[in-house]
């Protein structure tokens, strides 16, 4: 086993499993160096200069739930590690603010209140409730579904009425999100799906040799991933009604990060359920020449996946279909539990004399 590892003072021994025991001498020497010369001397020297870390990237008009905690913490940890290693990190919050959910939501709002004015009237939890109602209508009412799909095209086409309402919805969501991110100590610059809309025509032109017609829908087929019946899976880049999907904006975002932001690494932090999606995005980008594929040179794109947070029935948590634990409630409960334990210690006189109920 040891002969398969490069020679290093760092490793004391290893065994099948793989269990690696760090050398006590190396640990002591490293700690001494950090104490004497500063912790920055321990930072690894990476060959990359600039990285994009895509997180936490929630959907607008929905509340953050317990499942979003992982992408917040994992994404922030990756960003901090890279920053510690002297890499310029572009923290990108790729919020979902341009898709079908807005067609449903806007159409329901305009239907129930034609003179609707969001500002000062709705909070994020109100929008979340409206979204659930709109999603149910979308599934059950074919006329509403058709109108919602047309609303997306109108929004993406810049129709003033839809853009104005969409902007106010984003303001409400942004305020609630930023308050939670502040509590978690997580920083990320919002550059949502809509930001890349103006680049989509150029990106689709660059991908034109890959785009195929599939019953009126414009798609990019995967060369490696197969679905039911052995048919290749695909990215939908232009829907049959002329609208764009999150597949389209993810391709545009990757193009922008490689060609405009000049990132050496692009890292996406999401649950493992999106693994196949990003495999197809990276595959299309490699065929277009944006990414080098198996070549070790940069730029490189990575998907960092984590396990799904599931409901009691074993299904994935979905805000649009059911009640899920809100992240704000989880943080409040954790804070209250911690405070309760501290107060218990104070009363039992097991804590520092400097602590009091007020502190």
TrEMBL record:
SUPFAM superfamilies: Nucleotidylyl transferase. The keyword Protein biosynthesis applies. One of its GO terms (biological process) is reproductive structure development. Gene3D superfamilies: HUPs (3.40.50.620). Residues 49-350 form the Arginyl-tRNA synthetase catalytic core domain. GO terms for molecular function: arginine-tRNA ligase activity; ATP binding. InterPro entries: aa-tRNA-synth_I_CS (IPR001412), Arg-tRNA-ligase (IPR001278), ArgRS_core (IPR035684), Rossmann-like_a/b/a_fold (IPR014729). PANTHER family: ARGININE--TRNA LIGASE, CYTOPLASMIC, ARGINYL-TRNA SYNTHETASE. Belongs to the class-I aminoacyl-tRNA synthetase family. This is Arginyl-tRNA synthetase.
């Amino acid at each position: 086993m040891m002969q398969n590892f490069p020679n290093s003072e760092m490793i004391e021994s290893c065994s099948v499993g793989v269990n690696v025991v760090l050398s006590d001498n190396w640990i002591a020497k490293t700690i001494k160096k950090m104490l004497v010369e500063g912790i920055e001397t321990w930072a690894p020297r990476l060959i990359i200069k600039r990285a994009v870390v895509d997180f936490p990237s929630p959907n607008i008009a929905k509340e953050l739930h317990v499942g979003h905690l992982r992408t917040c913490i994992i994404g922030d940890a990756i960003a901090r590690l890279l920053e510690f290693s002297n890499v310029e990190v572009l923290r990108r919050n790729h919020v979902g603010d341009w898709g079908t959910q807005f067609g449903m939501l806007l159409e329901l709002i305009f239907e129930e209140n034609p003179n609707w004015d969001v500002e000062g009237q709705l909070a994020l939890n109100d929008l979340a409730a409206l979204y659930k109602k709109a999603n149910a209508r979308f599934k059950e009412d074919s006329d509403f579904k058709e109108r919602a799909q047309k609303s997306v095209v109108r929004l993406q086409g810049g129709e003033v009425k839809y853009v104005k309402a969409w902007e106010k919805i984003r303001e409400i969501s942004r305020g609630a999100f930023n308050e939670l991110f502040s509590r978690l100590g997580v920083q990320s610059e919002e550059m949502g799906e809509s930001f890349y809309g103006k680049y989509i025509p150029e990106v689709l032109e660059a991908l034109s040799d890959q785009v195929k017609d599939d019953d009126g829908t414009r798609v990019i087929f995967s060369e490696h991933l197969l679905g039911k019946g052995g048919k290749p899976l695909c990215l939908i880049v232009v829907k049959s009604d002329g609208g764009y999907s999150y597949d389209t904006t993810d391709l545009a975002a990757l193009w922008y990060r490689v060609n405009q932001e000049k990132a050496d690494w692009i890292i996406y932090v999401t649950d493992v359920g999106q693994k196949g999606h990003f495999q197809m995005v990276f595959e299309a980008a490699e065929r277009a020449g944006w990414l080098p594929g198996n070549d070790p040179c940069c730029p490189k794109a990575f998907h960092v996946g984590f396990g799904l947070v599931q409901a009691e029935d074993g299904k994935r948590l979905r805000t649009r279909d059911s009640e899920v634990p809100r992240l704000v409630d989880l943080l409040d409960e954790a804070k209250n539990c911690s405070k309760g334990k501290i107060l218990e210690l104070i009363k039992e006189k097991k804590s520092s004399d400097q602590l009091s109920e007020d502190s």
